[in-house]
Amino acid sequence: MRMGHTLLWKLEFILVLYSLLHSGLTQDAVLTIRPKRSTYFIGEVLTFHCDMNEGRRGDWEYKFIKDGQTFHDYYTNPTFNLNHLYKEDRGVYQCCGRNKGSNTKCSNTVSIHVSADKPKSKLTAGTTTVTLRCSVDQSDGWKYEWFRRTSTIAEYRINDGENGEIRVSQGGIYSCRGFRGEPAFYSDKSDEVTIKITLSTKVIVTQKPSWSQMFMGETITLTCEVQGGEGVQWEYQWRTPQSQTSWRNYKDWTFTASISGGYSCRSRPQDDSYSLIKWSEALRLSVLAHKLKAELKMTKSPVEGTVTLKCSVKSSSSGWRFFWFRGEKSSKLLTTQEAVFLSNGQISVSQEGVYRCRGGRGEPVYHTEFSDPVIIGVEKPKAKLTAGTTTVSVGDEVTLICSVEKSDGWKYEWFRRTSTISEYRKYDGENGEIRVSEGGIYSCRGFRGKPAFYSDTSNEVTITITQPVLRVSGWWLSPGSSVTLSCEVEHESAGWSFYWYKAVPDLSHKSASYSYELLPASSNGTADNSYIIHGQTHTAGYVCRAGRGEPHVYTLYSQPHFVWSGDLHPSASLSVSPDRVQHFTSDSVSLTCEGNSAEWRVGSFLLPDLLSFCSDWGTMNGSTCHVQKIQSSNAVFWCESGSAFSNAVNITGHNDDLILLSPVHPVTEGHSLTLGCKLRTENLLSKVVFYQNDTLIQNDSRVEMIIPAVSKSHEGFYKCQSSGKESPQSWLTVKCQ
Question: What is the pTM of this model?
Fold first, then answer.
């Protein structure tokens, strides 16, 4: 930079020396520029004017020189314009003139600097007052334009003169830009500055109704009042103990009381979201979560034959009205014909009956809970329900008797419910005795008088409809053996026919759901309560039911009962991983179904009688049921498709430290068999002793027992011992080839 200035100075000196040598005159011509700037920018306009300071202007011709080279030769106009400056226009300028007497003289030199970068205005905000300043660095002669916008108002120009400093009283997003010259040359706009104004106006919160204590569920209105804000359209925001509301155009906020704490508001003009009034002082609400209960007290009245009732609410706040009722479930308010209203919370009555009251206030009305009832005139009796029997067969009936002791004139209402049906009134007349054939939970109560006076409801009586029980001759199928089903009916009597069904899995439900198909020769029922099935080789499920009478009335279906086969079949099979009968309770087990089906479920029968499915104790993923931790149990598992059952396997879970490793499927005669033993700690075993049917069969240094060719004689219970511990025993099945 220093070298550049030195070269420029030398060039100016040479030009001056040149003009003196050639003219022989002193330099008194003057070159001026308008406007005069320290720096010019591309696009600005510049005017040169050459004044010879001698004679008349018309006597002279003028030329203009840039960096020692003539760029505009002699002509009669002393003024020359550059109407659009470019970067290349920077340099040292001079003018020379000649008159008719051939006198020549040259002016001073003027350096012009043209910046390639368009300037950008800079906007700053004051720290103590809302003063904005706009400037264009490293240049002069600027005037300024000011702009404002908001999130809802488009940008517009502020008519605050052309100064570089203004004061603002409105919040908003401000920017500016500089301009100079004629025609005007504009700088780039400044970055935007967001101004938020805190207004000196105050807001206060008022409450209506002005109760000191509120209850959850009551309706309250808070009002945000701007003091001295007349003539301005305001919008409002509320702050609660847990959150803030959005801005709204109305000052009243009506809501349901639910949270204790401070509530405050603030406001801003609707057309200026950047000018805010500070948050008001918080109005504290006390909201009780529990619902009040009215209290009803009875006192003797000075008027003979009447009683005075007083209703009250224990509350520190006021505004309560009271509502009176007579009768157990009456929703009709007492009238002046039924009571004398002494004051808001006090009445006088002469009729016997059950009275209640409750308080209420506000709009809409917030009600307390009903008071405890007060009985006028008599002690409230309780109905008594008796049943001839609590167990009844299908088609039979049982007699229920309802009574209110030591009084007369009663009629009765009857009620029934079940575990799945809520209580409802049975319309069996109003007698004290009814006959029922449905199972369920029954109760009754008496009533008399008009309006009705009700006794307390009786104790409940459960009536049970008997369900037949299905039994089978054996759980596990043996080759060539038959299966005998027996159906037992409680309180068995003559006239029963028995119906036998095969259970068909219904996979539309992941839990225990079956449809039933009648077994052969069972469509008309059998007189005998047993049924024999020959040649059954696959796992199967069965149910039964009984019926009698004309028309036929049936019992419920029995619970399903199963017979299991351990043989694998291509159409449906179950495999277990790890492949063994015994597992530690910490083990995970996978049960996989294979065969002619795309959809499966895995069933389990926890001995002796609990039926469940994978969805109850595992996770079904495609055709595999994953059990994260096996339970301490002895259970049978199998697969079900929409038409078939797979083979069944017996799996046991143990808390013991040692288990026997034996295959989960039957072993075929002639095949080899390896039995092992496993510690829960996974430590290696040094010596294992094996037993069959409690008889020692191997006692040496080997840790496994290998039977090269299994025969039927190897079938039985096996267990192992090692390190002073003994495993549970498991059954090994051997099947024929």
Answer: 0.45
